[in-house]
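User: quick one, sequence for these tokens?
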């Protein structure tokens, strides 16, 4: 944790007093480490702890850092089996603290950045991966129409629109020529799979966006809903399962680990678990979805690289993460070429 000196605490305190039932000051704030997108703070008050999540200051890419969308989907999912923190209030007036923000429940649990889970027993690791799998399957099984989220996204032609979107985002943040990304921008639209039934997709479902119970091996909260929409659940699950293709020496991956010794399912077993939870048969286009996921992650990394150059990145790690755009783009293009 580090200081929250960049927050106008007097203004935040007035907002909480007006919009959060039971709030009592005084207020202190600390900024959570990590996170390349929306700066997030722990608010310590007499009435308990809260979490404030805001857009970063400065010029931003269109549609990025959508804290209002995060607030809406969290509010809707509170009615479901998907574990999410309770949300209290949204402020879309940038004049209050310099950017839009919302306030939510602080979940007292564990967050893991290393998916190999050092120090955890193998049977507990297996249970934690099982809970993680079950939660994303539960999300993809939610009836979004029943939650009033029919306008939360446009399900038709989802993959084509996502490829176009991330291609635009990449171009808008491009800082150097990357031939692999140029090739993928042409290849992906030409190899689109048939579209399946739409669902709520998280957009960035990974272990470090989950809060686990303090002692039990289960997920108690899913965080960081900025990229959520209505779309193809296979794209969402593949982006999550991309970890099995990533070298942990490069970035928080699982490629090459001893799955049996660690108690972690390998990629095939993890995919099979998911298919069982959602009642889906074999996934014919799995490698396409994995190619797309690597491309998308490369585009996200490139956006972080550009924000680091512009001075608007939310973390000191931004330059390192931004440098991963090229190797992930090259990995995606190598996979695409292997598919023909």
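Assistant:
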């Amino acid at each position: 944790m580090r200081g929250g000196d960049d927050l106008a605490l007097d203004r935040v305190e007035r907002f909480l007093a007006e919009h959060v039932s039971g709030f009592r000051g005084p207020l202190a704030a600390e900024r959570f480490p990590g996170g390349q997108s929306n700066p997030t703070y722990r608010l310590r008050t007499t009435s308990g702890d809260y979490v404030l999540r805001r857009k970063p200051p400065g010029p931003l890419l269109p549609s990025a850092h959508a804290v209002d969308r995060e607030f809406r989907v969290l509010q809707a999912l509170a009615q479901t089996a998907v574990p999410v923190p309770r949300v209290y209030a949204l402020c879309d007036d940038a004049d209050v603290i310099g950017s839009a923000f919302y306030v939510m429940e602080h979940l007292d649990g564990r967050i893991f950045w290393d998916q190999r889970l050092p120090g955890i027993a193998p049977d507990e690791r297996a249970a934690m991966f099982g809970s993680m799998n079950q939660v994303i399957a539960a999300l993809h099984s939610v009836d979004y129409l029943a939650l009033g989220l029919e306008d939360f996204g446009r399900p038709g032609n989802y993959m084509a629109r996502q490829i176009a979107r991330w291609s635009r985002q990449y171009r808008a943040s491009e800082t150097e020529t990357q031939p692999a990304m140029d090739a993928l921008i042409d290849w992906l639209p030409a190899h689109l799979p048939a579209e399946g039934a739409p669902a709520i997709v998280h957009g960035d479902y990974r272990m470090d966006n989950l809060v686990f119970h303090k002692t039990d091996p289960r997920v108690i909260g899913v965080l960081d809903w900025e990229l959520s929409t209505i779309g193809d659940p296979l794209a969402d699950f593949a982006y999550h399962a991309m970890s099995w293709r990533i070298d942990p020496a490069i970035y928080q991956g699982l490629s090459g680990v001893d799955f049996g010794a660690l108690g972690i399912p390998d990629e095939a077993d993890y995919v099979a678990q998911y298919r069982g939870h959602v009642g889906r048969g074999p996934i014919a286009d799995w490698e396409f979805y994995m190619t797309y996921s690597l491309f998308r992650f490369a585009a996200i990394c490139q956006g972080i690289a550009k924000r680091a150059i512009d001075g608007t990145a939310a973390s000191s790690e931004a330059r390192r993460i931004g440098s991963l755009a090229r190797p992930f783009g090259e990995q995606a293009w190598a996979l695409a070429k292997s598919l023909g």
